[in-house]
Amino acid sequence: MSRQTLLPLFVGLLLAALPARASDPWETAGPLGADDGNNTGNTLSHGSVQVHDLDPAGGAPDEDWMVAPTIARHSYEARANGPVRFSWGVCTPCAQFERVDAAGNVLTDDVSVVNEGGVESYDRSVRWMATSSTTFDYVRVKGDTNVTNTAGSIYTVRFWDTTYSIPRWNNANGQVTVFLINSQVQVSATVRIDFYNAGGTLLATATTVIAPNSLWSVNTSSISALAGQSGHAYVSHTAGYGGLAGKAVALETATGFSFDTPMVPIPD
Question: Which residue range is the domain that position 30 belongs to?
Answer without folding.
Answer: 21-161
